[in-house]
Amino acid sequence: MRGLLLNNLYSMSGNIKLSFCMALILVFVPIFISDSSFLSMIMSMQLFIFISNTGASLQIDESSKWNKFELTLPVKRRTIINAKYVSFIILIALGILISTLTAIVFIVFKGSVDIKDLILGYCFGLTLSISTPAFMYPFILKMGAEKSDLIIVLSGCLSVVLMYSISILLSLFVTGISFRSPIVCITSVIVSVLLFILSYFLAVWIHRNKEYD
């Protein structure tokens, strides 16, 4: 799997560098703002930005016929999917690293931060970055990478709808619940992780039954 993982990262290297540069620029934005609610928005963007560029690398794999060539390698189809999902986890980890740096910069220059805004930034960003590939990758496996840009946009929208839906459902049982409530944020991340796990098994099933011309 190591070779497959390295290939995935290599094919995404250009997009990773671009995402890293964009996210790094955002690190210094908190120096010029005093409202920590803007911090949560910036952190969410940084967490999501790495995942949002994966569509281009999937298109490269398809156009170069790599997705067909890798089937000839002495590895199981499950191993191919394993490498993809580990790649997603690495991108999410990069987003966490950069967003944490942003929070540190904000605290250093502003002295303190509203913990609710910090939780919202992490959780909304994690919900987006975890659930988006969970929705996206099985669809791309089934429909092809040509429509990856549209699929990523739709997956991102579904992730936002997911969080709002959780907020509405929780408000039926707990008073005073809003979209920004910590319990909504944390629940959304937990649901996203479960979707990510289910997505993995669905992707394995689709890949095993997929026929390439």
Care to describe what's here?
By secondary structure, this protein is mainly alpha-helical. It has one domain. 80% of the residues lie in helices and 0% in strands. It contains nine helices and no strands. Helix 1 (2-11) crosses helix 6 (77-110), helix 3 packs antiparallel against helix 6 and helix 3 (36-52) packs parallel to helix 7 (115-143). The radius of gyration is 18 Å and the shape is globular. The two termini are 24 Å apart.
| Strand-pairing-aware structural class | mainly alpha
N/C terminus separation: 24 Å
Largest sheet: none
What is the alpha-carbon Rg in Å?
A: 18 Å
Count the DSSP helices: 9
Mean pLDDT across every amino acid position: 81
Count of DSSP strands: 0
Stretches with pLDDT under 50, minimum 5 residues: none
Fraction of residues in helix: over 70%
Fraction of residues in β-strands = under 5%
Number of domains: 1
Order of helices and strands: HHHHHHHHH
Shape by Cα distribution: globular
Keywords: Hydrolase, Membrane, Protease, Transmembrane, Transmembrane helix
InterPro entries: ABC2_memb-like
Pfam family, one: ABC2_membrane_5
Protein name: Zn-dependent protease with chaperone function
